[in-house]
Amino acid sequence: MNATATLTWFARHELTLAWRDWAAMMAGGRTKRERAVTIGALFFIGLLHWLAYAILAPILKPEMLASKQALIVLTATLLLTFSMMMSQAIEQVTRAFYARSDLDLILSSPASSQHLFAIRIGSIAVAGAMMTSLLTAPFINMATYLNGAHFLSAYAVIAAMSMLATGLAVIGAIALFKSVGPKRTRLIAQIVAAVVGAALLIGLQVAAIMLYGNLSRFDVLKSDLIARSAPDASSLFWLPANAVLGDALSIVALMIAGGAFLATVIAHYSNQFGGHAIAAAGVSDHTDAKGSAQRPFRSLTAKQALRAKEWTLLKRDPWLASQTLMQILYLVPPALLLWRDMGANTQVHVILAPVLVMAFGQLAGGLAWLAISGEDAPDLVATAPLPRRAIMRAKNEAVLMAIATVALPLVGGVAIVSIGGAIATAAGIAVAAVSAIAIQLWFRVTATRSQFRRRQTASKTSTFAEAFSSIFWAGATGFAAAGSLFALPFVALALITLAIAYAISPRA
Amino acid sequence: MRSSAPALQITDLRKSYTRPAVDGLSLTIHRGEFYALLGPNGAGKTTTLRMVAGLLQPDAGQICICGIDARTSPVEAKSVMAWVPDEPMIYDKLDPMEYLEFVAGLWAMDARRAETQARELIGILGLEPHANTRCQGLSKGMRQKVALAGALIHDPELIILDEPLTGLDAASARQVKEVLRQRVANGTTVIMTTHILEVAERMAERIGVIAQGRLIAEGTLAELSVQAGHGGTNLEEIFLSLTSAESAAA
């Protein structure tokens, strides 16, 4: 087998695996529901396009697009997208070194590890571009519909950004391997990924709070201060934005720069990939020298033992730590808003309540999956002498208590501004958390905690149900905090979402 | 009534997937007995034991554990039994002592007694150097021993082990066999599946051979030899003779 054949052979192998992974993700492993899933997906895509149209139609006017302000907003949007892509790429690239599924087989074969990693890094760039294209497609398609085909060039910009993000992620991962060693690289990379993904958005929100007293990043982007300090319209700084607006030269320049950068990174670092992957494998086999402190056994009931176990595992899970950090980071702007306006703005709780409900609903979903589905010793727990219902109740209590511990200080802060708002927020967080737990119970699967990353791809239905339930409860809480009866339709929507989720769940 | 009842009594147990996995199996295992359940791959051994452990719902049949109907009183049945699967399922982020504390909590043991038992088991199984090291760093053999310690800590009357010696080195396998022998000597009942026929031959008082979901032979080595219809005294020969005759008949 010559070198070229090896490269193409690896590419074909990776493509086959990626396709099967994608197909399984879309079908959620249930071929019988393919038709229902397809119809649901089409409906959802249609809804997203309608939403994108509603948002873009009032603002996409030719005269507005020609302004410097449009370049600022577009560039900021691209930077936000790029930060998300970077976050994803850091996570994926690091995983490529630590995933052991087929790496042991391939690295112990005479095949070239350089070729394998070149293909794997390339496929991360492709997957990143595809995923971002999918998520932004409604906006790009509607912008094209409203303003012309030149907006389709946004897809090329996404491809270039994905190559750039992947290249930077490789450099970052290798730098981490060299500086902190393979043992700490994974955890630090996870935290860096979480921070990179959230930093820009949060930074803009913090700026909006400090300057304008609200959470709208657009108020900052449209400000005179930004307009004055931004470079001239002819500057290269606007190249990505100009590419999105259809400037052919900018598109070509961006594509060449992205492609050349990624190719250079792969060529430069590919000979180190195998060594780092082997070092990463050594970490997973290495005995953890750090032992737990010796302490006497506690007298625990079965339910207390289950709760204590769940909390200990939650505390010791680095992946969860980074995910929780992400959730907490998103809570920084509302907390800052609360601190800044405490007592000064009596309506602040109306803004805060839905944000908190949304964040805690999502957090509860993740924790509930870990407690309910991500059980590493299902046989042990199932053979313990206590009813199945009691096991589930103990696990759910563990999740709710963890949520309550994190939520309590924030709800307390809201109470200083408005007692009614705090009651609405607490109730909203409680129902959003209970809904997320219920969805996880209905869609529970047998999995290990290490599969947490794939929880959202395992069942699209539960992911969407969880997201919509949190959104509707957040809306209901916002209106309830404002004393508006508009809360009722949102409550109805949340209940309908839960009813549909239950009806189509495997537990129904 | 309970104290005189067999450790395990299975009557006409059935479970089907696309085809019958367990097909009218009946089995009685006495208290304090070391029983080996043998059979070719896919014979229904693990399915049978998972139904006994309450991890699978039978289609039909009765399971009585120490006189307790496991289908109508599963919690009571589980309280006198322990299950050790072939793949050790333990928590990576807990150390062996924390794992044993958790298991003791599940079986609602007194904390002081549990700690004493845990330290004793950790010592017997040679896990002291790793007692406070998170399980993620342990080898498969050590993990298997931690899982076994978890099964023994609450002093079950019946221990069910599915391929307990897989992945263990010679010294660890000897430790595990010794621990099981001691338990049986103290009146505990052990049921074990294994593909290592030599282990079954040396350790088991009675051996059951299962094929295509049915018990095709049962007894001591001598009794099995008679049932196999030849004078061989080697379990491997007897086993192959019994299972090949069964598959030929099927």
Structure commentary:
- Chain A has 508 residues and is an all-alpha fold.
- Chain A has helices spanning 3-27, 34-56, 62-65, 68-98, 103-107, 113-147, 153-180, 182-212, 217-221, 224-229, 239-244, 248-285, 302-315, 318-341, 348-373, 378-382, 388-417, 419-442, 455-458, 460-481, 487-504.
- The longest helix of chain A has 38 residues, at 248-285.
- Chain A is globular and about 70 Å long.
- Residues 285-289 of chain A have low confidence and may be disordered.
- Chain A is built from 21 helices and no strands.
- The termini of chain A are far apart.
- With 250 residues, chain B is an alpha/beta fold.
- Chain B contains nine helices and ten strands.
- In chain B, the strands form two sheets. Chain B has a six-stranded mixed β-sheet with strand order 6-7-8-3-9-10, with helices on both faces. Chain B has a four-stranded antiparallel β-sheet with strand order 2-1-4-5.
- In chain B, a hairpin with a 2-residue loop joins β4 and β5 (68-69).
- In chain B, α3 packs across α4 (111-124) and α8 packs across α9.
- The interface between A and B is large, with 40 and 44 residues.
